[in-house]
Amino acid sequence: MLHWRHSNERLSARLKGDGKKFFEQIIGAFTGRNRRTRHRQVCIGITLGALGGAVLGLLFAPQSGKETREQIADATVKGAKAVKDYSVKAGKAIKEKAEETAETVAKKTRGLAREARIKEKEAANKEGEEEKSDA
User: Fold this and answer.
1) What pTM does this model have?
2) 63 or 104: whose pLDDT is higher?
3) For position 81, what pLDDT does the model report?
4) At 8, is the pLDDT very low, low, confident or very high (cuts 50, 70, 90)?
5) Measured in whole angstroms, how far is the alpha carbon of residue 77 from the centre of its chain?
6) Mean pLDDT of 31-43
7) C-alpha R_g of the chain
8) How far apart, in Å, do the first and last CA atoms of the chain sit?
9) What is the DSSP letter of 32?
10) Residues 6+ apart with CB under 8 A from 59
11) Across residues 41-57, what is the average pLDDT?
12) Are 52 and 39 spatial neighbours (Cβ–Cβ below 8 Å)?
């Protein structure tokens, strides 16, 4: 009996410590977060495996070291150029989106200021009319 109680206490302590993870897993199952995490892990694994295989294939290819180094250098230059081109495109897209957002915010701000001025005039007119009616 003592042994059962001791193991039960250990189990409840473990559940208390891992309770947060347990509930996160349940919530993840309903929201699909666990699935996305698994898919992301699989994609990362496939990418790393492909890169590793490409590097090993280059290193053990039946050609001279000089040719292999030239291929690696060419691939590096092409990769750097592709990253540069992509970052320039992304920078332009971000700049355009920021300009659109700034324009939208400015329009809304002008509209709110216009509404505030109108309401201020209406309140002043009401106040003036009340003063005339009191007199």
Assistant:
1) 0.40
2) 104
3) 92
4) low
5) 29
6) 78
7) 33
8) 93
9) T
10) 68
11) 88
12) no
For residue 27, count other CB atoms closer than 10 A to its CB: 11
d(CA 52, CA 41): 16
Write out the two tokens for 43.
Answer: 């994609």
CA distance 41 to 48: 11
Closest to 63 in 3D by CA, of 52, 51, 71, 75: 71
- C-alpha to C-alpha distance for 40 and 49, rounded to whole angstroms: 14
Residues in CB range of 3: below 8 A, 6 or more apart: none
**How many CB atoms are located within 10 Å of the residue 130 CB?**
10
At residue 131, the pLDDT reads: 73
The span from the CA of 88 to the CA of 72, in Å, is 24
Cα–Cα distance measured from residue 101 to residue 93, given in angstroms and rounded to the nearest whole number = 12
CA distance 135 to 129: 10
Whether 65 has a pLDDT exceeding 50, the answer reads yes
Say whether pLDDT at 49 is over 80. yes
How far apart, in whole angstroms, are the C-alpha atoms of residue 84 and residue 87? 5
d(CA 135, CA 130): 9
Give the three-class secondary structure for 122.
helix
Q: Residue 9: its pLDDT value, please?
A: 57
